[in-house]
Amino acid sequence: YKYAVFFAFVSYPWSCSFDVLIPTQGSAPEAAVLGAPVLAILRRRINIAQDNNFDAAEFDRSVMNTYGRYSLVVDYGKGCRIWDTNGNQYLDFAAGISTCALGHAEPRLAAAVSDQMQRVHHVSNLYYIPQQGELAKKLLATNGADRAFFCNSGAEANEAAIKLARKHAHDKLGIRSPVIITAKSSFHGRTLATLTATGQPKYQQGFGPLLAGFEYVEYNDVHGLEALARRLSPPHTSWLAARRKPRLAAILLEPLQGEGGIVPATREFFEVARRICDETGALLMVDEVQTGVGRTGKFWGHQHLGVAVDVITCAKALGGGVPIGAMMCTTRCDVFTPGTHASTFGGNPLACSAGLAVLNAIEEDDLLANVKARSEQLQAGLASLQASTGFIKEIRGWGLILGVELTQECGITAAQLCAAALKTGLLMVPAGQSVVRLVPPLIVNEAEADEALCLLEHSLRSLST
Questions:
Q1: Which is nearest to 99 in space by CA: 400, 461, 370?
Q2: What pLDDT, on a 0 to 100 scale, did the predictor assign at position 127?
Q3: Separation of alpha carbons 405 and 393, rounded Å
Q4: How does pLDDT run across 220-258, given as a tens digit for each residue?
Q5: What b/e sequence results for 102-112 when a residue is b if at least 16 CB atoms lie within 10 Å of its CB, and e otherwise?
Q6: Which end of the chain is more exposed for a tag (fewer CB within 10 A), N or C?
Q7: Are 428 and 437 in contact (CB under 8 A)?
């Protein structure tokens, strides 16, 4: 479908001004296609420019240069929008990289954190923390796990899973040199162990020697996974094979690779991983840091695949932007004992109150249904955009984690498209060289999804001229 869009550029590319018009109901056939009950005319003038009162050079003198930052200086947010210090408004389809599940300044989340801060925000895990127990119970009710460990981030959750897998291999399987299989193009974190688990050399460069005990397989390569598992834990088909000690401790996979380009796993790949783990005693572990807590339209991404798992890790959306992570496991692999793993801040009252507010809102507002509806809407719009522009090679993903892969022929990189979209007031993030990631808050509504499609189309066409 087409949108009525009128743009007036001023000093592009350094700044731009524009008006966006979306037709009201009945004003054009497109309104019926969009299915919006009444779409008011949106008029917005944006002047994207560096805030004169913000000294970026001073910032850079004090803060390490570990991020390639855009010039946007954030002031405040509300719902699916944020405003910069110049008063410009942006539609946020990045959500802190799949983190702000309830958007910005959500009243229930803000109240929960504020109330808890005024009561007691942190105590040691040497004492019982009721909010932690309540959050664990609610989380475990959404999956097949039995126990939870709380930490502060996705990397820490995956670090806990790696330690759990190694200890389980030592204590239960008698493996002295355990190996964990992960996938190429995966991403599991920035700590030394999770960086080693990450199957992307570009992230590992300059940090060697990496940890021993990890092997990699192509994502969704069933035969490759079977061959690697046989090498690490050969079946006892002969006297010689029986003398070879098994080494496979776990298989750690994302149900959908995020940083690897928004690539969902196949059911067959996960089914084979499950069978291998059942045959060897190894653990099947899923990294749900980016896909968990409703992002995919199911509470957990791996639930799309219909395969039971032993360990689940999550973070990001769990606190709606308040730092919290969790590692959950089944009883059979719950081998941690007092002193074997810990986290000073993990599961404190403040973070757990945020987590409870997020889970309650997802249930109260039936956000999983909204995720599914907005996903269908966005995918339909992207398919239309694909047909009309020829710039899109493929649209991938589940729910509200969607990847738009650009064609090589269009000559546009994901970074270029995200930069162009920023100038129109749309925030997105790349997922590799040629894939743009759409991960809005789970509360995104129909009109906001339409607006994002409109701004994305303009951004694409502006780069192709």
A1: 400
A2: 98
A3: 5
A4: 999 999 999 999 998 765 555 556 689 999 999 999 999
A5: bbbebebbeeb
A6: C
A7: yes
pLDDT tens sequence across 361-400: 999 999 999 999 999 999 999 999 999 999 999 999 999 9
Name beta bridge partners: 17.
8
